[in-house]
Description:
The chain has helices spanning about 1-30, 35-60, 90-105, 110-130. By secondary structure, it is mostly helical.
Amino acid sequence: MKTEWRIFGGVALFLAAATALYGWWTWYEMGAVEWIGSIALLLSFLLSAMVGGYFLVVSRRIEARPEDRPEAEVAEGAGEVGFFSPGSYYPFGVALAASVTGLGVVFWMWWLMVAGVLGVVLASAGLLYEYHTGTRRTAA
């Protein structure tokens, strides 16, 4: 987790500097600070700082992973990553429903947004409970 908090910390530092520079530059050029961009940069800085702070706290609580140690071997990171369903159509359904939701947002069609969000919820539930119901049910 050390790598992650360093990345987000670096991004947060960059955004803090960009916020200050942007505020000064707009004040110098226009005579007043342009608030929309300044606040957007400030909120981006705060979000990056929050994520980086979370990763910093987590990195202190867990033992060092192989990717956090410079002397680690590649083989130390090998092993099972997780279980991925080989024949599931639900990821495609989630992506399709998210695309419908995105189109609804882009064209500001409330009925399309509602249909897309409902599709995302249903497809996500299907993906989550795929191995708990139906023919793929696994023994407990």
